[in-house]
Design a protein that fits this description.
The complex is a heterodimer of chains A (201) and B (282). Chain A has one domain. Helix content of chain A is 81%, strand content 0%. Chain A contains nine helices and no strands. The longest helix of chain A is centred in the middle third of the chain and has 30 residues. Chain A is globular, with a radius of gyration of 17 Å. Chain B is α/β, with parallel strands linked by helices and 282 residues long. Chain B folds into two domains: 203 residues, P-loop containing nucleotide triphosphate hydrolases (Rossmann fold); 65 residues, no CATH class. Chain B contains ten helices and 15 strands. In chain B, helix 4 packs antiparallel against helix 5 and helix 5 packs parallel to helix 6. The chains are: A mainly alpha (201), B alpha/beta (282). At the A-B interface, helix 1 and helix 4 of A face helix 2 and helix 3 of B.
Amino acid sequence: MKGLLLKDFYVMKRELRAFLFIIVFFTAFSFVGENNSFFMFYGLIMLPIVNISLISYDERSHWDSFLETTPVSRSTAVTEKYLLNLLLLLLWSPVVLAVYLIQAANLGSPVQAVCICIYMALFFPAIIYPFIFALGSEKGRFAYFIFIFAAMAIVAAGVSLMDQGAFVIPANLSLILLLPPIAAYLISWRISVALYKKRAL
Amino acid sequence: MSNAIETKALTKHFKDFSLDSLDLELPEGCILGLIGENGAGKTTAIKLLLGILKADSGSAKVLGRNVGPDMGDVKEEIGVVLDEPGLPEKLTVRQLGRIMPSIYKSWSREDFAAYIRRLELPEDKAYKDFSRGMKMKLGLALALSHKPRLLLLDEATSGLDPVVRDSVTDLLLDFTRDAGHSVLISSHIVSDLEKLCDYIAFLHKGRLMLLEEKDTLLEEYGLLQCSAEEAGAIDPSAVIGRRDNPYGCRLIVRKDALPRGSVTEAVSIEELFIFMVKEDKK
């Protein structure tokens, strides 16, 4: 597992600089003008896409076939990608939280920001990843585009409501609200493992 | 002597191709060359041995254990080099050297460093900038550095220049100096395998045509040049393959079935393979 994560961090460092630059740029862009808090959460939409890009790189370089020749099981290969998504969330969430505290105090409590982070980083990949592991990143791209479209629309709508003060998550309810995305993520992981085990490589 | 690889009637059907009832045996400590033209089923056979593909029928054992979905422990003891080694393009040798110890329990940093030095591979150059020969050499270094007992090489020498092929041959010969080490190497370049192998298997259109000790093959079969009339007098069961030309015939024959006093020339494995495949196509 550690080796797989290390490999993905090396690949991200060398191949996905553009992605990381875009994430930083849009987060910074949220400081410009008014009602741009949508861009604050942009990075959280992009993180699962970074992960999908890594899966795509694996397929293109035949790393997935290489792993089949090693003691690494398919279950471990899938688990690593789910874990990597959580690690990226863990690394990026403090940035989102900091930006939120600096510029969006009028949007509600920081608990809301954490809640949004968890939803962004868990719920959408929970839907998209089983398609990717079942069909491969190329064929799964259709689901990927639906994901992008849905994610953008939901985030834009949600942030717009928050900007207008029409949508405020009560702080004491926020933690309960985290359960659905966490449950969805765990179920998605089990489904992806089962589907990837059946896939012909 | 136990077998490193043993398959019985191993069969896999695809839409447009079948690997049909493959019976292979590779005794421990030996090198088996799996020879076949492109699309003969060599890669399918290797994928079945690794459990990457699931057989439709038949059975396979690798290092004494049944091939199945949970082969993690067995794979600790197998080194594999596929036609495309499958490494991320921008990674360097140094980075791979940091990744691999957590993939193989028995990974040896010292062995890996020694192979990299011996094969003269640059440590900080991206994999994508490697030549085909360098990629294959790196694949071999990775396959050998976790102290495997069995090497499975799929077209690992194809497309390599003679100097690289020679260093690969040396590595494999060094590896099999240990009596417990075995190699299955597939190729469509027969001359490479002729130098290396103890056993030769011919695979043609998904069917095993022959599996024999190399020395026995070279002793048993001969090349006979004769006239068409003389060829007609030979027992047909002794003739493995035949080519006619304006000056007569070239026959690959089983020496023991020829009349006493018949003079044959030595036959190469490559000639034997080509004659057998062409005879099969008739």
